[in-house]
User: Fold these one by one.
Assistant:
Number 1:
Amino acid sequence: MTSTVLAPAQLIGAKADPMLKHRNIGIMAHIDAGKTTFTERVLFLSEKIHKTGEVHDGAATMDFLEEERKRGITIQSAATQVDWKTFTVNIIDTPGHVDFTAEVERSLRVLDGAIAVFDGVAGVEAQSETVWRQANKYKVPRLCFINKMDRVGANFEDAVQSIRDRLSARPAPIQIPIGAEAAFKGVIDVVRMKAIHFIDGAEDRKYDEFEIPAELLPMAQKARHDLCEIAAEFDDTLLDLFVEDGEITEELLKAALRKGTLAIGCTPVLCGSALKHKGVRFALDAVLDYLPSPLEMPPVEGDVPRTERRTARKPLDTEPVCLMAFKTIAESTGDLTFVRVYSGVLQKGAKLINPRTGKSERIGRLVRVHANKQEAIDEVRAGDIGACVGLKDTVTGDTLCDEDNPIALSKIVFPDAVISMSLEPKKSGDRDKLGEVIRKILREDPTFRAQT
């Protein structure tokens, strides 16, 4: 039996094109499936934080608003960037409540992949279906993580079947659990055909790996046969080997599953317990193995302003700069606008045009955001996500682009609000303050409407 230790990310040097080793992903799920806890464990494993905060204690890193900490829920999407092995991963943690579905919509519009987290007891729930439809709308490849496998009533097979039945998806389990509920102690890696035991107290940094025990071998062999059957649809070589009962290597199986995942023909499924530090690191490994880099995404298309022509931008630094603003946080020091750069290199001091308004915007400060903290940077490359401080006339869904090579990307379409109410200040002297707060909400929330 071998004991494997997670190598610190900074000790493994990146050698390839940085954008090939780059991922932009979102974490999405129904309420209380464990999204934010999952993200907290990712931050801990990648050494972004050195102590985990719990949602139920109001101490989660990504839930930093006062209302989020008080209620123990995620209200707005929060962004961060982590290093895992030789890769860089941008992560957006999204809300699960239907009231804040616009946060999920605008995040999925600019992401290349997603992890859908499911409760191992409840399986697919109402909001799981909503976020899944949103991911389908934007053709976002995704992984599934069956969480809370240590809870009473957890059932991996039922959860996977609910993904088939309620989401009309094609789950491809690349892991199966060893035990469930209190007896959940590890997983079988179906791709590599190895058994993995979690080590209590090791916080997912260490695990024991060994050959699959004889009593679990028939279950593991069936799971691998089913997985190969799914993967065979995406690779002719693998199909021939499958039909002839030939040996299918780990590399060939991974490559075929990756093709299927990027084509949204199948969805790899993993399992664990984020709260108990079990299995999250393998989900991170799967992000690198199966979700796309920005360079693997198709060129982004848009309209040439004031013409009927369409044009496209490849995700390359050499293309004219083109980006989309997908979230605004109104601040007294200048609005913080999150952007996804689709082509070119966004540099500090650049002058870009907004095709919607026809006005120019000067890029003053550029920052990298980690929850509620900011780090100043000089540029954001094609395929990356960053934030601009102090944009004047840019709102969520706007395109900013090179003045000599304009393009207007398709806007983000949000659902209409279903609740309306009237507000009036208690004192006439507060009218200006109320107006200021409403204008701030208007800048931040694309579904909010106000009239006087």
Number 2:
Amino acid sequence: MRTWQPTEEADPVGTPAFCRDCLHDAGEAPRCPHCGSPRLARHAELDTLHIAHIDCDAFYAAVEKRDDPALRDVPVIIGGGKRGVVSTACYLARVKGVRSAMPMFKALALCPEATVVKPNMAKYVAVGRQIRERMLSLTPLVEPLSIDEAFLDLAGTQRLHGESPARALARLARSIEAEIGVTISVGLAPNKFLAKIASDLDKPRGFAVIGSKEAVAFLAPRSVGAIWGVGKATQERLAREGYRLIADLQAADETALARRFGAEGLRLARLARGIDERRVSPERETKSVSTETTFDVDISDFRTLEQELYALSRKLSDRLKAAGHAGRTVTLKLKTADFQSITRARSLEDPTRLAHRIFDHARELLAKEANGRRFRLIGVGVSELADPALADPADLVDLEGARRGKAELALDDLRARFGKDIIDRGILLDAPGRRQTPQPHRNAPDELAAREAASSTPTSSTPPGAAPRRK
């Protein structure tokens, strides 16, 4: 496979170029004539492209290294427990072979000297928002993909900023590194597909450009797995049909691909030629919200499983309420001790954002699977997101459910005022590892009110009966 140098052209004469460190014009020199930096952006289409993909470099690990100087020069893995998975790893750990989603025991075997840090999502989200605000200062057309990456369309911003989109992006990267303390990589291209590929070419602190004229030749030697949306199963299917490289798709007739693979074949034919007409959409729709946990020890006991499930249901409910979402479908996720994944879902009549409704239905799904098998992971999520104004309507039949809903909102108010650990429902009272409840103080709710609110969930060691009639 040929290598590709993102900052060099075969003929540099007359090719637009600037220094990514001082932002001065670089001319034809291999280094910046102003500051001596070798980090130059040089490309024939540099001043005309405006679609970008920005991806933070090893984001979670970078934030932890920023906040703890002792971690700066050591391998860092973000993850939890020996049986969990790697959320991300810094580049020092990646050199040893550590990758995201790798089991922690395997990561530590590859890099035993690594420092493991448990994820601090609240901190990462806060830093992600700071970065997002800076993106929005360049253009309103920002399409988030996650808390640390997004597409941007800077078309028409040159007059506003007094410089090309490419130079404005380099200035953004420089300011984020200097003022927020993390680094980003930028991919600049004529469309989203190529920009996403470009951002991964020159990491970390990268700035790569793929132009429209070179797109076909650039893509040809790459595996079909480089195409957005082509996972392992699709890649194997394409290989069986003789399509291993993108060049194989380029050589195929578009009509033949559409006939063989349907709409997916037509999409592959166009992307293989660097054609992607998707727009940068700032209103990227959230399709589902979920949370999960991996146990340190396999669990078969139903009581322990339901306690873990309730804690996750409450966490999920908090996220839904904070984001202004509600969902019509509740999904339970389990992974057995032998790594078999189990997913079960239930559709509700009305969308919900309440922890007790999410838990009740997920608990019934759990009861059908908790037959003595040992589980290493449990998760819960909601999908078919809907307007929260339509969620959890009053029900004249299920009066108990309405009462529990009001009690939950009252608990939310208490937790917002006095801290999340000020009060819990009864199901968590004997949960393993539960911290001792802090002693009341003069600002805490009185003991009777707390006991009455907490008693709204019965405790049991047996699988549940049917949930209330309203679903």
